[in-house]
Q: What sequence folds into this?
């Protein structure tokens, strides 16, 4: 409320002192907003829901769908067209039938962008456009809070599609610059959306097998170099490396790959799906581009996996503002505002301090999970695999004999409300028309069957305790089931 209205309020109540606190509250909100608009960063301290709501309402009131005066009989009041209000004679006027839907979107109905550029200001929706731009600034800031250098993240955009689709859009952007390229060199990771993003974009993946170093699965730099040499740099669109992954695979050697890409003149796209939450991964990405040592063109990272929002968005960032801008220009048409709005609300209400704290808690939870899993494994004839280079996911090698019943163990865990734990036994499989040996385990022959668990952002320490407890009980039951089955088989 503006100062004049507050004066009038004081007049109605005939008492200025009652209004003083309201005035203070108002001044505080104005200060927060001015700070957001001028600094364009995540607030240090998270805002209250009431503060976020009032800023959303203010931005929404700037959009044309909310310019109408009251409309008798309308569901939501969103859509304009009343006498004295806006008149819409276009085919897309932000009309929303259901009040529930209008509310679900905080009365923002125009989406973002224009047909030629997803970050272009939408004339009917300056409020939505502002939210989008502020979200891009805050996303870049959040990546820096998580450890990214200014060199690594010169700018960022949030696309309203998950990681695989966003990687696809990055590939198509690079294609405009490298029309002769047909291949994408891809250090193997057994995650289908990665491979599909390559194939659906119309490129042929050159799968580079990883190598084993102790228990760890690591990048085979020489094999990547040989793959580039075999096809010629011009025929290659990019190297598509992956940081965050299930152990015993470890984050790709982005420093080595970035240097190789720089030397050979091949672009480098990094799938950093949930790597933002690992300081270790962010530092290695910084090191990869520091002092112009190596080449990274773009990073793609999931909004839900890193920032605790519903699935649906991706942050595309990188050292070259022009490339990030080119990705936004390639996007055909307008786009959904929802994933952007979710991130906007979340970054405001979380604040940089709490984000840092969540990252620190995650790191501590990983360490706790590691210790508890190691101790559990020791007493049950299993062994925690030594994978220190992966500081998100862990793997426990299961005793011989479990492999034959791997699916059963996985399903028993799932039915005991343990989600996310995977029992992995590589199998021969075809994905996107490519044959993989040992699919699921990231290499053609991993020596054992294992169980995965991860410590991701937002996990609570108590969940580790519950997990170990359920794992142990499931393990006992599982062994009893197998023993019974084997006795049955022997009797026949
Ligand atoms: C989650 C994930 C993806 C992409 O998944 P989307 O569903 O497209 O967000 C790709 N690669 C890895 C390593 C992932 O973890």
A:
């Amino acid at each position: 409320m503006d100062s004049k209205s507050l004066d009038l309020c004081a007049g109605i109540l005939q008492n200025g002192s009652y209004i003083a606190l309201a005035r203070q509250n108002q001044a505080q909100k104005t200060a927060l907003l001015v700070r957001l608009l001028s600094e364009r960063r995540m607030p240090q301290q998270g805002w209250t829901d009431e503060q976020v709501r009032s800023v959303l309402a203010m931005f929404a009131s700037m959009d044309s769908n909310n310019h109408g005066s009251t409309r008798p009989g309308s569901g939501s009041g969103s859509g304009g067209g009343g006498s004295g209000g806006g008149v819409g004679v276009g085919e897309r006027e932000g009309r929303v039938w259901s009040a529930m839907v209008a509310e679900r979107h905080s009365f923002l109905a125009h989406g973002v962008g224009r047909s030629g550029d997803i970050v272009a200001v939408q004339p009917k929706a300056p409020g939505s456009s502002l939210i989008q731009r502020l979200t891009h600034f805050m996303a870049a800031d959040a990546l820096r809070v998580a450890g990214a250098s200014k060199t690594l993240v010169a700018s960022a955009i949030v696309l309203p599609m998950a990681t695989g689709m966003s990687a696809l859009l990055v590939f198509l952007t690079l294609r405009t610059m490298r029309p002769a390229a047909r291949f994408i060199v891809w250090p193997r990771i057994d995650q289908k959306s990665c491979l599909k993003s390559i194939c659906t974009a119309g490129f042929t993946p050159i799968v580079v097998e990883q190598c084993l170093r102790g228990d760890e699965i690591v990048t085979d730099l020489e094999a990547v170099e040989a793959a580039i040499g075999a096809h010629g740099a011009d025929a290659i669109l990019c190297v598509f490396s992956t940081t965050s992954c299930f152990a015993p695979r470890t984050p790709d050697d982005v420093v080595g790959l970035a240097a190789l890409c720089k030397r050979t003149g091949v672009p480098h796209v990094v799938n950093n799906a949930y790597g933002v939450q690992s300081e270790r991964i962010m530092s290695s990405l910084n090191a990869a581009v520091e002092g112009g040592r190596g080449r990274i063109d773009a990073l793609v990272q999931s909004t839900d996996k890193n920032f605790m929002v519903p699935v649906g968005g991706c942050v595309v960032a990188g050292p070259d503002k022009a490339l990030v801008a080119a990705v936004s220009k390639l996007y055909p048409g307008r786009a959904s505002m929802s994933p952007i709005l979710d991130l906007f609300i979340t970054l405001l209400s979380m604040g940089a301090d709490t984000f840092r704290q969540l990252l620190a808690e995650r790191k501590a939870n990983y360490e706790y999970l590691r210790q508890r899993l190691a101790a559990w494994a020791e007493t049950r004839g299993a062994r925690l695999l030594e994978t220190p280079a992966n500081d998100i996911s862990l793997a426990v090698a299961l005793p011989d004999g479990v492999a034959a019943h791997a699916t059963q163990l996985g399903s028993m865990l799932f039915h005991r409300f343990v989600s996310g734990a995977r029992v992995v036994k590589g199998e021969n499989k075809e994905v996107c028309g490519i044959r993989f040996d040992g699919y699921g385990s990231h290499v053609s022959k991993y020596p054992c069957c294992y169980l995965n668990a991860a410590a991701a952002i937002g996990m609570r320490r108590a969940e580790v305790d519950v997990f170990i407890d359920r794992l142990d009980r499931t393990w006992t039951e599982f062994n009893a089931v197998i023993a019974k089955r084997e006795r049955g088989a022997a009797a026949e």
